[in-house]
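User: Quick sanity check before I run a bigger batch. Here is a single chain. Can you write out its predicted 3D structure?
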Amino acid sequence: PLFLFGCVLTPGKFVSSLIINKDRSFTFAYKGEVIAVDPASSMGDAMKDLGKPDEDASDEDKEAAKAAADERKAASETEEAKRKAMAEALTKEAGYKSVVYQGDGKFLIDYEMKGVLSHNFLFPFNSDAEVLIPFLTIEARANGTVRVRAPGYAGEKENKGNNPMASGSNADASKFLDGVFTLDTDAEIVSQNNEDGAKTVGARKQVIWKANP
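Assistant: Done. Predicted structure follows.
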């Protein structure tokens, strides 16, 4: 089923922040790299030498190997064109200040979204991008609390088992992680998983996580 999806999007080098206020207003920001990892391509790279003819191979085998190489090149060029189109599509969506595709699966993104937590929030979300592992989710609960999770900012160990379909490709994805995520709030923090805990800054509290493999 994994191959039904176009790619896995994962953070590269980034700075991200989430501000949640008592009145339920929020601001989420992400600035930095987003890497598109193609699970099918990763498997293809691992298997591309299988059947490669040696020096004593027949002309037919050599032609077959050349045809296979040409096919991989054409598929790569098609994928690059799709990613450029995706970058162009994202620039038309609310929140994206800029999206630049740098090639080889790397996007530079400057994103900021403001709103009120009367509903859930997910980043990134785009039906065409076919995101498999969300970077960040906010669940608005009926008891007046919100739950924040950031599976995209965690390494393979932390994500293992959370998404069985994604776990096979997450090892390749998490190796790019290099960022900082800051939660800032003046509301009560019911629980959090940072060993350093929350720091008080004036009337507000901050929890800072460093994301790496």
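The CA atoms of residues 22 and 188 lie 8 Å apart.

User: Great, the batch can go ahead then.
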